[in-house]
Each structure stands twice: as C-alpha cells, then as structure tokens.
UniProtKB/TrEMBL annotation:
SUPFAM superfamilies in UniProt: 6-phosphogluconate dehydrogenase C-terminal domain-like, ClpP/crotonase, NAD(P)-binding Rossmann-fold domains
Organism: Caulobacter mirabilis
Catalytic activity as recorded in UniProt: a (3S)-3-hydroxyacyl-CoA + NAD(+) = a 3-oxoacyl-CoA + NADH + H(+)
Gene3D superfamilies, per the entry: 1.10.1040.50, 2-enoyl-CoA Hydratase, Chain A, domain 1, NAD(P)-binding Rossmann-like Domain
Domain of life: Bacteria
GO biological process per UniProt: fatty acid beta-oxidation
Taxonomic lineage: Bacteria, Pseudomonadati, Pseudomonadota, Alphaproteobacteria, Caulobacterales
GO molecular function, one term: enoyl-CoA hydratase activity
Pathway: Lipid metabolism; fatty acid beta-oxidation
Family: In the central section; belongs to the 3-hydroxyacyl-CoA dehydrogenase family.
Residues covered by the 3-hydroxyacyl-CoA dehydrogenase C-terminal domain: 506-603
3-hydroxyacyl-CoA dehydrogenase NAD binding domain mapped to chain residues: 325-503
Protein name per UniProt: 3-hydroxyacyl-CoA dehydrogenase
Keywords of the record: Fatty acid metabolism, Lipid degradation, Lipid metabolism, Lyase, Multifunctional enzyme, NAD, Oxidoreductase
Length: 734
C-alpha cells in the first residue's frame, strides 16, 4: 500500500498510519479509497490483530477530505475533461459509493477501531473518523472537525449526514451539516463526537488504551439504540425539518440545493437502519452533484480558487521575485490595511504619508488589528510585536529606497498620484515594481507619469484589506509580463488571490458591481418599493440589497459619477429618472448615504438602520406587494444585469479568463456564491437561453440589457464560456 502503513504492537493493536506521499495534507483519492478496503480486510482477517488505531503521518492533521478534482467527476477549471456526462456521473457515483462501502466495512469489521486526531479532519476526513468506533482529539487550538461540503454546494456523501446526527442528535448536528461549521476539540467532546481530549502528541496512546477494551459495535448497530434527542418520528425529530427549513430560508433563501438535500437526507435517513440510510445519502449526493449550482461552486470556490492561489495566471519563464521590502504610499484606510497584511507575511514595510504623525496613525491601525488578534488568541504577543516592528512609518520619501515594490494608496487624484509616483521612482531600482491601488483611474493614464511604464501596474485591494481575499491586478498598455509575474509573486506572498484584468474604466470588479447598485436605483425610480428591492436582492444571494449598497458606497459619489459622465458625453447624454432621483437625494436633501447617517435608510446612532419613509414623497411607489412574478423578475434582473456586464468585459478584452471572472466576482463584490459566479451562471443557463432572456429584458427596460455581439456569436455556435475562455483554450490560442 502506498498511503497506509500498518504496525502491530505487542498487544495486538495495529497502528494504521495514513500518509499520502508527496502531499502536505492527506486527501481521499481513488487510490486511498481502494486501500482503505485493503486496510479493513487486514484488520478483519489478521488473527494477530485485536483492534486498530488510525492516525495521520502528517503534521498538518488527519485528512482534509475528498479530492474533489478527482472524485467530483470534474476536471479542474484548467483541465479539459474529455469524459462524457454519463462517465462523469458514473465516476462520482463510484467514488461516493465506494467510500460509503469502505467506511461501513470498517465500522462492521468486528474489532474495535479508534481514530487519533492531532489536527484537522474535514469532510471525508471526519467521515472516515466517524466510521471508527471511538475518536480521541488533541487539545490543539488549530484542530478543527467539520463537514464543510455545504459551503461548496456539496453534500457529505460518505456517511456524514447519517453518523453525525446519530452521534450528537439531529437538532444539534443541523448547523454543522447545513452551514459547514467546524468544531474545536472541546466542542467535539461536548457534542459526543470525540470520546476524550488529550495533550497534543498523546492521542495514539489514548486511542490504544481505549482499543484494549473497546466496543467493536457502533451504537446504531445495537438493538436498543436511540437517536439523541429523538428520531424524526418523535416530536423533537420532526422539528428538525421545520427548524432546518426555517434556517435555510433565513440564511440562504433556499438558493443552495445542497442544503435542502442535506436536510431531506437527515430527515429520511434517520427513519431507517444505517445501511438503508447510507443508500439514501448516496442518492442525494448524486442528485446534488448533478445540479449546475454544485458544479459551478465546486469549480469556482474549490478548483479555480486553488489554482489561482498557486499562481495559475502567472506568466511562465520568470524567476520567482523575492519581495522583501515594500513601500506603501498613503497611510489611510487602504494603505494601513496593506501595511498590516504585508507585515503579517514578513515583508519589511515603509509606510509613507504627508507627515510623520499621519504615517504613525496608519501604523496605529495595524496595532489595533494586532491587539485584537492577540486578545482572541489568534496571535502570540511576541509575534504581534515582531509584526509591528516590520512597519516603518515615515514622511520621508528617501526611506522608499531599496524597495522591491511600491503600493501607491494616496487620495484618488490623478495629479497627486503622478507626483508621488515620481517621488517614489526617484528612489527605486530599475527592477522595482510600481503598483497603484486606484479604484477608478485607468492605469495606462497613471503610467504616463512613470519613467518606467513597463514596471507600472494596478494592484487593486478591497476593503477591509485584512479580510478581503481578492486582489485585482490591472495591466496597463505598457505593463510588461515580467512586472505581472512579479506582482503575482507579491500577491501570493501576502496570501491573497490574484485575478488579472486589462485596463478599463472601473476595471472588472467595480464595473460589474456598479451595475448591481445602479439597477437598484432604476427599480426604485420605476416605482418598486425599496423594501421589496432590497429583500429580493439579499434573497438572490448578494450580501446586501442594492439600495443598502448604494448607501454604503455613498449617493453623492454616484451623483458625481453621473455628472462626470454627462460632462464627458455632452449632448449625447440622455438624463433619466435615476438622475432626477439622485439629484433630489443629494443636492436638495443632502442624503449622502451611510456616511452622513441619511440615505435610502436612516442610521440612528444606536440601533438598527430603518428604511427612510420620505422616499415615497420622491417616487410614486406602485408595487406594494411582492408577488411571485415580481420577485422572479427582480431576481433575474439583478443577476443578469451583472452577468451581461461581465460578458461585455470579455468582449472588450477587459478580462480573458472565465476562472478569474468567477472568482473575482464572488470574492470581490460578493456575487451570489450559489451560482459559481456570473460566468458559471451564464454557462449553467446556457448562452442561447441567456441571450433570449436578455432580448426580452432589453425590450422591456432598455439597452443596458442588450447582449453583446460575442454572446450572440457564442449562442449561434453553441459555445460555453468555460469552453471558449477556459485557461487551456486561451493558451492554445496564444
Ligand atoms: P484615505 O483618504 O483613507 O487615505 C489616503 C491617504 O493618503 C491619507 O492618509 C493622506 O494623508 C495620504 N496622502 C495624501 N497625500 C500624500 C502624499 N503626497 N504622500 C503620501 N501620502 C499622502 O483613502 P483610501 O480610502 O485609503 O484610498 C486610497 C486609494 O485606494 C485611493 O486611490 C482609492 O481610490 C483606493 N481604493 C480605496 C478603496 C476603499 O474602499 N476605500 C478600495 C480600493 C481602492
């Protein structure tokens, strides 16, 4: 066996060490699953073996779960999968079913088996442990046990939906199954998921001690077994379904088929013996796998995210750029956040502002984050001090000298940015990268101030920088591939996910996100009640409704952009009802949004925001009741308006990879994750059907929905975005 080693001790206890060669973390591949069968056979038939302990040979933990790329019956976003749909389904079925069978065989092998958990066990990893008769966990703060499948649109398909509720009760298990929440060692003990918690490094010993007298029969295989808290036929059990459904409606509005299927699986599975229950689970697992939502989510949130995190979009042929020192210009909200994440990654950071005081204030923000992390036990005090020692606040541009890269984050002014670019470049080596964090100014224009435009690039962070995982890298006309490679090395070093786009007003993320907030304004101007717009916006899976978002971004900014567009377009500009609405809100009423406590909502100093009742004096609200058709129409409009803008970005070459577009949308502006991203949404609906719906919407609401030529062409050829703009296709074309 490649992945397991078995050593039998003097007491006849077999120590089974799980260690997948060449990987930092164990995962369940087809080969591992086959070998679990061999391990079980050996435990069962070897007369010398009285019982077994399963442990990991990796410091990283026990097992991170199934290898989705392989078992999911899907190729990575990068790989072209030549298998037919039928073959993919068969592979998924075989994988899911084989795992369920192997685990059940382990559970019924007739000898006591325990798992020693030193670190994390997630998904199939936890399901593996649940199929043994006892679990010991180390008191390691990094240990996590959980079934995160629901988070990527999947259903735990190797017994998790059946064994977890049978161990801890269906009510208690529901949040772990439906939300993918994980538990610490102590929580797992309180939930009855592990039998004991011991000092790190002592789990094997404790597990062996249990095996000596352990019971080789799972509780649910005993005659007198009762589900903790009662099964579905008891009053409490029946409540699980009702409560779970309510939970889904509140949190995800039923957008995720996986969650509903998990719920059904628990409900139906708990009424029958375990073997039948596992078959029910396999059936729902497959049903979930077949949904376009699950496919999109797995591809984007699992495979693409992983690929981009490993630098998939980095041009080849350039040596890794060792970024040791970085200057951040501007110690405001963004600059301070960037300084913190850099120091976290061990990068020496020069934080420049107009005065030493302003620079020091920026460092103060990093100090607040460190103090919080230390207080929560996420960072030791020494580590916090070491981190802060890496940030050097200054007002002297001479300190920029020796930096490998610069992140400019001063006020959004072209003139100011030009000035600081020149000041910084005077200190830099020819090889250094000059990056701008501008959110709106085209990079090519900013690069005009640079003496080395090939080294000039957009490095667009999102706020709050320490929490947001995405960085949008923008190529100017003159930006070199080498600069791109260096910038990606920098982004990976600070542990963010880079997507690469070409220059355009609003780049990719702000441009598409802008259509969402705008469509909300359009709907309001049409007379749709604001509560309906925002409620449906949230129910669509966006983090907030479009009017709330307008308030957050600031209405005066939207007004200013409108005025600018008007000035740029001159007589061609046709003012619409949205302009009138914004003018009243901003100019007449000074309602700027959250920033001055007054927008479409009122923001009291204490308590929750409430919708501003005065809105009905500005707009005639015609739709007071939300009927089903209206809800569906709003939902479609909000999603499709963003998706068609993403498609336009492809047509214009602003973005060239389907993978970057989907990851950027979900991580950057919170595009409904259940769709897998706007591009997966279009592919899921089918380009042809998408175009037909756009034509319908264009006829009703105007040219902002008009499908670009690219979409019509793709519809005519029967193409998909992932087929045409998948990474492989792009490389072949190059
Ligand atoms: P901010 O107003 O909080 O900070 C700007 C800082 O630049 C201030 O501290 C100011 O003193 C400093 N500054 C001014 N002149 C300077 C000079 N000559 N040298 C050094 N520092 C100088 O602004 P912010 O929100 O941090 O935004 C900074 C940049 O990041 C802008 O270009 C903005 O568009 C962009 N951005 C902002 C966000 C966001 O959500 N706020 C998101 C992405 C990008």
């Amino acid at each position: 066996m490649e992945n397991f080693k078995i050593e039998v001790d003097g007491d006849g206890i077999a120590l089974v060490t799980f260690d997948v060669p060449g990987r930092s973390m164990n995962t369940l591949t087809g080969k591992v699953i086959a070998e679990i069968g061999e391990v079980v056979e050996r435990i069962k038939t070897d007369p010398e073996i009285k019982g077994a302990v399963i442990a990991s040979g990796k410091a990283s933990g026990f097992c991170a779960g199934a290898d989705l790329g392989e078992l999911g019956g899907q190729a990575g976003a990068a790989g072209e999968d030549k298998r037919s749909e039928q073959e993919k389904l068969q592979a998924a079925f075989d994988g899911g079913f084989a795992l369920n069978k192997a685990f059940r065989a382990l559970e019924t092998c007739g000898k006591p088996v325990a798992t020693a958990l030193e670190g994390l066990a997630l998904g199939g990893g936890l399901e593996f442990a649940l199929a043994t008769h006892y679990r010991v966990a180390a008191a390691n703060p990094k240990l996590q046990l959980g079934l995160p499948e629901a988070k990527v649109g999947l259903l735990p398909g190797a017994g998790g939906t059946q064994r977890l509720p049978r161990l801890m009760g269906a009510m208690k298990a529901a949040p772990y199954l439906l939300e993918g929440k994980s538990m610490s060692a102590e929580e797992a003990k309180a939930n009855g998921v592990v039998g004991e918690v011991v000092e790190p490094g002592k789990t094997i010993e404790a597990a062996k001690a249990w095996v000596k007298t352990g019971d080789p029969v799972a509780p649910w295989d005993k005659k007198d077994y009762r589900i903790p808290g009662g099964g579905p036929y008891t009053p409490t059990g029946g409540q699980v379904f009702i409560m779970g459904n309510a939970m889904l409606r509140k949190q995800s509005y039923g957008n995720y088929p996986a969650q509903l299927n998990i719920l059904k699986c628990v409900y139906e599975g708990l009424q029958v013996p375990i073997d039948a229950a596992l078959r029910i689970e396999t059936r729902y697992f497959l049903k979930t796998m077949q949904s376009p939502q699950a496919r999109g989510m797995i591809r984007t949130l699992f495979l693409s995210l992983q690929e981009l995190g490993k630098g998939a979009s980095r041009p080849a042929g350039y040596p890794t750029y060792d970024v040791k020192k970085v200057a951040v210009l501007g110690a405001g909200m963004m600059g301070a956040g960037v300084a913190y994440v850099q120091a976290q990654a061990g990068i020496e950071t020069v934080l420049v502002d107009v005065s030493a005081e302003a620079a020091e204030k920026g460092k103060g923000y990093a100090r607040t984050l460190v103090e919080k992390a230390v207080k929560r036990g996420k960072m030791t005090a020494e580590k916090g001090e070491a981190l802060l020692a890496l940030i050097h606040p200054t007002a002297d541009y001479a300190d920029v000298k020796g930096s490998d890269l610069v992140v400019e984050a001063v006020f959004e002014s072209r003139e100011l940015k030009a000035k600081v670019t020149q000041q910084a470049e005077a200190q830099l080596a020819d090889t250094a990268v000059m990056g701008s964090n501008t959110s709106t100014l085209p990079i090519t224009g900013l690069a005009e101030a640079s003496v080395r435009p090939a080294n000039f690039i957009g490095i667009h962070f999102f706020s709050p920088v320490d929490k947001m995982g995405l960085v949008e890298i923008i190529m100017g006309k003159e930006t070199s591939e080498e600069t791109l490679a260096k910038s990606i090395d920098y982004v990976l070093k600070i542990r963010k996910t880079p997507i690469v786009v070409n220059d355009s007003r609003g780049f990719y993320t702000s441009r598409c996100f802008g259509t969402f907030v705008q469509e909300g304004l359009q709907m309001l101007a049409e007379g749709i009640a604001p509560a309906i717009i925002d409620n449906v916006g949230r129910a669509t899976g966006m983090p907030r409704g479009p009017l709330e978002m307008n308030d957050d971004v600031a209405l005066d900014l939207a007004y200013k952009i409108g005025q600018q567009t008007k000035a740029d377009m001159g007589e061609q500009y046709v003012a619409g009802p949205v302009d009138a609405l914004l003018e009243k809100m901003v100019v007449d009423l000074k309602r700027y949004g959250r920033k001055n406590g007054k927008g479409f909502y009122d923001y009291p100093e204490t308590g929750q925001k409430t919708l501003w009742p005065g809105i009905s004096d500005l707009v005639e609200i015609t739709t007071k009741d939300a009927d089903k058709a209206l809800i569906e129409e709003i939902r479609t409009r909000l999603l499709y308006r963003q998706a068609v803008e993403a498609a336009r970005c492809f047509e214009e070459g602003v973005i060239t990879e389907a993978r970057d577009a989907d990851v950027g949308a979900i991580l950057g502006w919170g595009f409904a994750p259940w769709t897998g991203g706007p591009i997966s949404l279009i592919d899921g609906v089918g380009v042809k059907a998408f175009v037909e719906k756009l034509d319908e919407l264009t006829a009703k609401y105007g040219s902002r929905y008009a499908p670009p030529k690219l979409l019509r062409e793709m519809a005519a050829n029967g193409e998909t975005f992932y087929g045409r703009f998948g990474p492989k296709a792009a490389k072949a074309a190059a």
